[in-house]
Amino acid sequence: MVTKKQLCKKQEYLDIVKWLDSEETGIDTCGTYEYCRECDKTKDYPCARAYYQAKAELSKEDYSLMQKEAKNLGLEIARKIDIPKRELDNYYES
Fold first, then answer.
1. Residue 94: what pLDDT?
2. Is the separation of the CB atoms in 45 and 53 below 8 Å?
3. How many other β-carbons are positioned within 10 Å of the β-carbon of residue 52?
4. What is the SS3 assignment for 21-89?
5. What is the pLDDT of residues 14-35, one digit of tens each?
6. CB 57 within 8 A of CB 1
């Protein structure tokens, strides 16, 4: 079971990723991620809930690959906006 604190942290992180991706591509990237198929925008923390729902549906192998790709993307983003790696690592614990 995911806690409200985990949902909040994940939502904050995913919002940053969406914002940076949108800035880079020049389009709104909301709804373009793999986990977006699970999104219910009527709920609080919609991206985080969709992320965790998609995570639950993936096999361990698929999730491991997705997590590795997300972490690599997160590290790339962290370098762009100057977030220390140790702070970013906190997002990957949940």
1. 47
2. no
3. 19
4. HHHHHCCCCCCCCHHHHHCCCCCCCHHHHHHHHHHHHCCHHHHHHHHHHHHHHHHHHHHHHCCCHHHHH
5. 999 999 999 989 999 999 999 9
6. no
* Residue 91 near residue 74 (C-beta atoms within 8 A): yes
Share of the chain above pLDDT 90, in %: 48
Q: Kindly report the number of other CB atoms within 10 A of residue 61's CB atom.
A: 8
Token digits of residue 29:
């990237």
Q: Which domain holds residue 40?
A: 4-92
Distance CA 18, CA 41 (A): 15
For the chain, the domain total comes to: 1
Q: How many Å is the maximal CA-CA distance in the chain?
A: 36
What is the pLDDT at residue 60? 64
**15 SS3 class:** helix
pTM above 0.70, yes or no: no
